[in-house]
Amino acid sequence: VMTQTPLSSPVTLGQPASISCRSSQSLVHSDGNTYLSWLQQRPGQPIRLLIYKISNRFSGVPDRFSGSGAGTDFTLKISRVEAEDVGIYYCVQATQFPRTFGQGTKVEIK
Amino acid sequence: QVQLQQWGAGLLKPSETLSLICAVYGGSFSDYYWSWIRQSPGKGLEWIGEINHRGGTNYNPSLKSRVTMSVDKSKSQLSLKLSSVTAADTAVYYCAREIIVARGAFDYWGQGTLVTVSS
Q1: Residue B42 has pLDDT above 80, yes or no
Q2: Which chain A residues touch B if contact means CB-CB below 8 Å?
Q3: How far apart are CA B14 and CA B17, in angstroms?
Q4: Which of A42, A81, B62, B93 is the most exposed place for a label (fewest CB within 10 A)?
Q5: Residue B101: its pLDDT value, please?
Q6: Is A92 in contact with B106 (Cβ distance < 8 A)?
Q7: Residue among B47, B110, B111 whose CB faces A98 most closely
Q8: Nearest chain A Cα distance for residue B52, angstroms
Q9: Which of A33, A49, A98 sits opposite B106 (nearest CB)?
Q10: What is the phi-psi region of residue A64: left when phi exceeds 0, alpha when psi lies from -120 to 50, beta otherwise?
Q11: Residue segments in chain A with a per-residue pLDDT below the cut of 70
Q12: pLDDT at B2 over 80
């Protein structure tokens, strides 16, 4: 089970935001990798990959997005929130079957 | 430029079979896993299952008895069938590409197909 907190995050433009994702089991795969990704869902836009394997930023993703963590606890940080960052953010684990997603965290502007 | 284009029936009656196609344009078809993921109205994401270019599959145990995925390499298309649908299967269904060496890296998504189950 993947548990995200908070479920809602009102943020002032230019301020940081942080989302936590906790797994009920270790996400370290037998191959040594940890398959934890972060996705962004903005209104009217296709779902977008932000981060994979905990901290690898996907192509084209601004460097204000960063991922960290290990084992069962992971964090997505937005260093300075911009208007285009409004949306819902999901963590997803792919270490085990079935793949499971967090409930989603809604980031909105105060 | 990679694009995943989906289509299929959007309105079903209970007990019917959901059938969706996802066509892949651009990029290699063989170097990725291909997943189906759904999102019920107002809710989060649920992984349905995955298939590779050889037809190897992994399904979510919660849906396994009703799910069939297949691949047509000649057309670069995936298909999803979900039998005996109920109102609980009402959702937006997505196909997504997953990088094999970076599992969980769903890098391209289809536009989503809303499937409504109603009598």
Answers
A1: no
A2: 29, 33, 35-37, 39, 46-49, 52-53, 56, 58, 90, 92-95, 97-104
A3: 9
A4: B62
A5: 87
A6: yes
A7: B47
A8: 15
A9: A49
A10: alpha
A11: none
A12: yes
The pLDDT, as a whole number, for residue A44 is 87
pLDDT of residue A33: 95
B43 confidence band (pLDDT: 50, 70, 90): confident
Give which of B36, B40, B45 to mutate to test A binding, by max A Cβ within 10 Å: B45
Tell me the nearest-neighbour CA distance from A14 into chain B, angstroms.
27
Q: A81: part of which helix (H) or strand (E)? A: none
A16, A78 contact by CB (below 8 A): yes
- In whole angstroms, give the CA distance from residue B63 to residue B78: 18
Q: Order across the sheet with A17-23: list the strands.
A: A2-5, A17-23, A73-78, A65-70
B6, B31 Cβ separation under 8 angstroms = no
Nearest-Cα residue of chain B relative to residue A61: B107
pLDDT for B82 equals 98
Beta-strand relationship, B11-12 and B113-117: parallel
A92 Cα to chain B: minimum distance (Å): 7
